[in-house]
Write a structure and sequence with these properties.
single chain; 290 residues; alpha/beta
């Protein structure tokens, strides 16, 4: 049974990048039978009241509501997807997280670039949203529209949290009929670590194939994990790149710590799905156990 719920939250500041992110949400909403909820946050950190009168602030909020509702209506008429709208005041990342929790969202989809003016710098808040999000976050930096999701890149390391990433990739792959491309970047020649990573790769590959999903496997030797993953994703024309986001220190030193995750989110033209791992008391290394 799918764990997908019925809301996809899309922050919209009417910038080009936020509209591109919105367009990328349509297929996922249809396949998961989800509502799309558009949210616009009037960022009070700018202290608008210092520059404007109360009636001007009210006029701004009304204008934003009207634009958002028109956008929602157009989507529903054109695509038949139910679209809700929310306009709130507060800090952007806090209100996005709060709304995602209240709606029990299955995904947040957002652009990573923002604009000046009444457009809210959504992109600059993306990393903060990802860091505390109660659900997976898909960030869209590239301009290319991807109508399908045929190729998913799944980087692997030795952390237990990778299991969550694998299971989520299987769910998405079943929805879109995707191929999952497993990749491990080797930054060491230590035979013990290399063999452990290879055993894990084989285990994951077999586990995914048991779900009748096609896979590929690749090992890459490089000192630059981030760029190697991005280069590989571009080479195979990937539609989605999946990462874990929370920093975890361990003796392998070959994993996606927070800095690597940030670099991938900031630099990848391919959509990035970021998963915040569940809290665990035991953070020791483990080859996959299912």
């Amino acid at each position: 049974m799918s764990v997908f719920k019925n809301h996809i939250l899309v922050p919209v500041d009417f910038s080009e990048q936020s509209i591109i992110a919105l367009e990328q949400s349509y297929n996922l909403a249809r396949l998961t039978m989800a509502d799309i909820t558009l949210i616009n946050i009037i960022d009070e950190s700018f202290n608008l009241s210092f520059f404007s009168k109360p009636e001007e602030e009210d006029g701004l909020e009304k204008r934003i509501k009207n634009e958002l509702e028109k956008l929602a209506s157009d989507i529903t008429k054109k695509l038949g997807i139910r679209v809700n709208t929310i306009v709130v005041r507060g800090k952007i990342y806090e209100e996005i997280q709060k709304t995602a929790k209240e709606l029990n969202c299955s995904f947040i989809i957002m652009g990573t670039n923002g604009s000046i003016g009444i457009k809210k710098f959504i992109g600059s808040n993306a990393l903060r949203v990802i860091r505390e999000s109660p659900c997976p976050v898909i960030t869209i930096k590239g301009k290319k529209h991807r109508p399908f999701c045929k190729n998913i890149v799944l980087p692997l390391d030795l952390t237990k949290e990778s299991r969550e990433k694998v299971k989520k990739s299987i769910e998405i792959s079943k929805l879109f009929g995707s191929t999952i491309h497993l990749i491990t970047v080797l930054t060491t020649d230590d035979e013990f670590i290399v063999n452990k990573l290879k055993r894990q790769m084989i285990q994951v590959n077999e586990f995914v194939q048991e779900h009748e999903i096609s896979t590929t496997m690749e090992f890459i030797h490089s000192d630059d994990v981030t760029q190697s993953v991005i280069d590989y994703a571009n080479r195979i024309n990937a539609d989605l790149l999946m990462i874990m986001t929370q920093q975890e220190m361990n003796w392998t030193d070959i994993m996606f710590i927070s800095s690597s995750a940030q670099q991938i989110i900031n630099n990848s033209e391919i959509p990035v799905l970021s998963i915040r791992p569940m809290l665990r008391k035991d953070t020791t290394l483990s080859v996959f156990e299912y």
